[in-house]
């Protein structure tokens, strides 16, 4: 999934953490919600500005970051 149009890092927003579509919701926030057992439907209900595509983009971003970390020497 091409998440680059959905996930952005802005130095002055949320301490430079990757955020969803310019919102103040970070990738880390979304991953924490999922890890705590929240269903996608619950997240979307609690955060109506998010879309299911945003959540998939957060997962893709995290997977890509993990893949890059594993490829470091």
Question: What's the short version?
Answer:
By secondary structure, the chain is mainly alpha-helical. Helices cover 48% and strands 8% of the residues. The protein has a two-stranded antiparallel ribbon with strand order 1-2.
Describe this structure in words.
This protein is mostly helical and 73 residues long. It has a single domain (7-70), classed as Winged helix-like DNA-binding domain superfamily/Winged helix DNA-binding domain (Arc Repressor Mutant, subunit A, Orthogonal Bundle). The chain is built from three helices and two strands. The protein has helices spanning 27-35, 40-46, 52-70, and strands at 7-9, 18-20. It has a two-stranded antiparallel sheet. Helix 1 (27-35) packs across helix 3 (52-70). The protein is globular and about 40 Å long. The model has no long low-confidence stretch (mean pLDDT 93).
Describe the structure using short key phrases.
Arc Repressor Mutant, subunit A; two-stranded antiparallel ribbon; 3 helices
Topology of this structure?
Layout: E1 7-9, E2 18-20, H1 27-35, H2 40-46, H3 52-70
Helix pairs in contact: 1-3
Stated plainly, the CATH topology is called Arc Repressor Mutant, subunit A
Proportion of residues in helical segments:
40-55%
Low-confidence stretches: none
* CATH C-level: Mainly Alpha
Which strands sit side by side, in order, in the main sheet? Answer: 1-2
Order of helices and strands: EEHHH
